[in-house]
Amino acid sequence: MLLESLKRGDTVLEARGITKRFPGVLANDRIDFEIKAGEVHAILGENGAGKTTLMNILFGLYQPDEGEIYLYGKKVNFRSPLDAIDMGIGMVHQNRKLIPAHTVIENIILGHPRAGNILNLKRTGKEITELCDRYGFKIDLKAKVWQLSEGEKQIVEILKALYRGAKILILDEPTSALAPPETKRLLESIRIMTRDELAIVPFITHKLPIVLEVSERVTVLRRGKVSARLETTGATEKSLAREMVGRDVIFRMERVEVEKGKPILQVENLSALNDKNVLALKDVSFSVQEGEIFGIAGVSGNGQQVLAEVLAGLRKAQGGKVLLDDANITHSPSLERWSKGIGYIPSERVDVGSIGDFSLVDNIAMNYYFDVDFTKGGIVNYKGLRKLTEEMISEYDVAAPSPDTMAKSLSGGNLQKLILARVLSRKPRLLIANLPTQGLDVGATEFVQNKLMEAKKEKAGILLISEDLDEVLSLSDRVAPMYEGEFMGIIPGGEARREIVGSMMAGLKPKVEEI
Amino acid sequence: MKLGSFEVKLEKRVSLPGWEATLISLLAILVALVVFSYIFVRAGVDPLTGYKEIFSYAFMSSFGLPLTINRFIFLLLCTYAFIIPIRAGLWNIGMAGQLYAGALSAFAVAFAFGAKTSQNAVLPPGLVIPLMIAAAILGGAVVGAIAGFLKGRFNTNEIVVTMMLNFITYWIVARLIKEGGLFMGASGEGDGFKIPESIYAPLVKNVPFTVFIALGLAMLLYFLFAKTKIGYQIKAYGKSPSAAKYAGISPYKIPLLVFIMGGLIAGLAGYHYFAAVPGVYKITKNYGDFGDLAFYGIICGLISQGDALAAIPIALLFGGLTNGGRFAQGKLKLGFGIDYALLGVLMITLVAFQFFYRYKIVVVRTKKETSDVGIHS
Q1: Amino acid B372: pLDDT
Q2: What angle do CA B56, B61, B63 make, to 5 degrees?
Q3: Nearest chain B residue (CA) to A364
């Protein structure tokens, strides 16, 4: 192949008129774009804009109904991802396709044609180390994958693709699970790769600033069509969002001042274990008042999830007390908490917050089947629930053909709207929102944040857990950066400076602790 | 695949209307019968004659029909014993053990009333029969509860537990009815004791009244899963235990509950076959065969996709075929095992046709201008 003779700016991949239909959906509608060597070309779009379909077509997982793909000027027909890999396309999945029990090096050479039956780990190790040095990846090749952070796992996937000889690297939501320093390092590596004439194609729904920072060109998809092709010089976060959503989007939520009432939730010296029986929540104390958003900022895995689950009654507390409206609920079952006015939006939208194989009505029933308004004498009033579901679908603008649609067919943003509608419709006194905007596109994020503000205005107390520093700072009245199961302090939201909170999230206590 | 200017494609189904599911099942049965014709032909029998013998004996003869109905009741109960746990995502492979326990408990009641010692004892049926049924339910439920409790409390694999309980109860029955066991019959040939005529289960037109229990359960289960809170909780747990926990559904109680419910229905099946079917009225020495027959409950449950009403025709079909197949085998002097072969072919075809529950074949006319890009053949 002519891979060696590629020059910067040569077209490596060209898609012409790509069209893909699914029952009832036109996922890709005559999409054209071209990708050049040595360039970062981002594909932008909201959830459901057809990005995933396009990505799967480029990687050979789907065949287009119409349209052609040209690779290095030649028409190609990928029958499977193997064809795509053989022709120099590498894919870094958002849901990592790695084997947790194997080491980094074993994962990298898995499926490599040169691996053969007898592994020459020494030689391979040397070659991979060279790749790491060249592109600035730091990773222990002998570590097991389950021990790695999300960022490190992503590095393994990138290395795997590069080691297979990828010249075009497709990155699915590359920065969504990364902590700020990891993001910075990844972007640095991407820059070095483009110097080696690799073409990088990140697919992105949110985190628009990163698009602007790293890409040269952007193709924006909206409802399956290309809505814009632009150079990033001259583009702004606002203009990109407008192309994606089709209207102006507010990026910074205005914090509404609401008069605070009495404390709803009081947490005293709370401790709990995680799934591995390690103390993951250590002696945390705080309170949430009526009309307040209390934000917890931190990189995932620092005990936020454990805290949310203990408060929702899904995990046992090891020590300490939880008071709701002055009543001790430390050991109450979750159902009792639901009826006492706690609402919980879990971070695992698909596995916990909804049931994919259930209709939307049955999903709404998850928070209503125990409610005397809907269940009398053990008989569930499905008719009433159906009406409620229809109301929620229209009020929250959930894109779904009917209340009988299976939840698994909803996009992430619509699913989150449905969960939000369900939880908020119970008018919770205390709302625990765990990563409520994670993975959502800008339009849906704005929607969710608006709803949280509305709940606040209605005097609910809100515990907002987020990895997105900007979100926590702009929404919260008070912010507690969390690190390794502890609060690093509690700071008033208005005074919180980005840098200080960022360093507290990394485990540094500020010199003057403000409470 | 392309055929001239047409293209045949597989498309994933978004939904499956009830009538289409029925049509697919009927088509599967038809295909199975056509496929099995080959075996008839090889055996030198005209397939039409073969099928006529099977079906006319199973569903139209005055000898065969009652036998078919008895098997149908038994299979339907076993199917329900499987369906309830499967709606919670749990596999009950222990209908055999649960029905043995049910039969033993029912006969223990008869034993307590002195049924073993006197064949002609006149016992009050209004008291003893309800007690026997209650005992059968209890016996099946207790054996079921063991698996449910272990699953809920310790997350033990329910398939292994129910399977092992089958062996345990099998040998308990053997210990009780054979070689001087407590329930041994007078003949000493390995059967259990026979209950006196006074406590034979009432017959309605020569059919045991248990048919009403089975059909009543069909309605009850349909209602349970379509309308009730408990049904909702079971389904939610079955689709996603973690989401069910979020919704406040106890991950301990649901496995216990569904295995108690499944076990008690299997216990009823045990009562039905050994204490209500005319001509039996004892735990027979070949009781293991009925344990084996109980496994058809799994097949019926899977084919009906957990739908209590859809299970009725399927259980009836299998009940008829096990019965008519054996008859035709004897009458037409076919080789041993032909009846099982027919059931096997039918099962495989029905399961294979479930492919069409998820996919459908569509034929599209390929447009001229795009005909060179389509899907690879």
Answers
A1: 40
A2: 135
A3: B247
